[in-house]
Design goal:
The strands form 3 sheets. Strands 1-4-7-10-13-16-19-22-25-27-28 form an 11-stranded mixed beta sheet. Helix 3 packs across helix 4. It has 269 residues and is an alpha/beta fold. The protein is built from 6 helices and 28 strands. The protein is elongated and about 65 Å long. The longest helix is centred in the last third of the chain and has 17 residues. Strand 27 and strand 28 form a beta hairpin. It folds into 2 domains: 138 residues, UDP N-Acetylglucosamine Acyltransferase, domain 1, CATH 2.160.10.10; 70 residues, Udp N-acetylglucosamine O-acyltransferase, Domain 2, CATH 1.20.1180.
Length: 269
């Protein structure tokens, strides 16, 4: 354990063995730091917050602040950050609200680059990457392995599926399905995230099945609902296709519109 003498650590905080806390950092009451956590100089951690083993908090990060609404202090719940995450400079992570689920949750192996904001009650899946300045409003869900480009903004209650890619500067006002990529203001779907699928370890047969499903959903059928029903009736060739259809059928906000900017067949993935 290496706790700098100029750090301020509340006696009600829980600090495991192997934790490092730099000078002028503040670790408040109700914060629990698991083994191997590193807290950089001038970072501020408020509780109740749990930070998993091996997570690194950069200087000037603000972790575990109260929700940003009028009853923030009254409503404040908890924040959970998984193992081996990286929280870079000036990242702000707010706790959940008691009326909105209670917990803001960050999965394992998540990279939050400089200036990222994650608002109350958001759920960020393991392996996700949020680039510099990306902003999540309250109650947003980000699937595992998804990537958000710099300066993109996601509206309240929107969902972004697993292994999706959101281009830099996009404004996401509706749901983005798993395995898709989206860009623009307002963000529109531009096809499958081919690079993300390969990097995410999705095998070729599943990628081909997703490509065929994408065409059926967004390029051939009169409506997405009818295409979904036809795909299910025909039998699903890959678990990834079932995941895609489940996400679409579970959407409450509706999906981002399709941008027909490229050749449709090539753009499907």
């Amino acid at each position: 354990m290496s706790l700098h003498p100029l750090a301020v650590i509340d006696p009600r905080a829980e600090v495991a063995e192997g934790v490092e806390v730099g000078p002028f950092a503040v670790v408040g009451a109700g914060v629990r730091l698991e083994a191997g956590v590193v807290v950089g100089p001038h970072a501020v951690l408020e509780g109740p917050t749990w930070i998993g083993p091996g997570t690194w908090i950069a200087p000037f990060a603000a972790v575990g602040g109260a929700p940003q609404h009028k009853r923030g202090q009254e409503e404040a719940g908890t924040l959970e950050i998984g193992a081996r995450c990286t929280v870079r400079e000036y990242v702000t992570l707010n706790r959940g609200t008691r009326s909105g689920g209670g917990v803001t949750r960050i999965g394992d192996d998540v990279l939050l680059m400089a200036g990222v904001h994650v608002a109350h009650d958001c759920q960020v899946g393991s392996g996700a990457v949020l680039s510099n300045g990306a902003t999540l409003a309250g109650h947003v869900e980000i699937g595992s392995g998804a990537t958000l480009g710099g300066l993109c903004a996601v509206q309240q209650f929107s969902r972004i599926g697993r292994l999706a890619f959101i281009a830099g500067g996009a404004r996401v006002a509706r749901d983005v399905p798993p395995f898709a990529r989206a860009a623009g203001d307002r963000a529109c779907l531009e096809g499958l995230n081919r690079v993300g699928l390969e990097r995410g370890g999705v095998e070729l047969p599943a990628r081909l099945a997703l490509r065929a499903a994408w065409r059926a959903l967004f390029m051939e059928g009169p409506t997405v609902a009818e295409a979904t029903a036809r795909l299910r009736a025909a039998g699903l060739r890959a678990a990834e296709v079932a995941e895609l259809l489940d996400f679409i059928e579970g959407s409450k906000r509706g999906l981002c519109a399709l941008r027909r900017r490229y050749d449709d067949a090539a753009d499907a993935g």
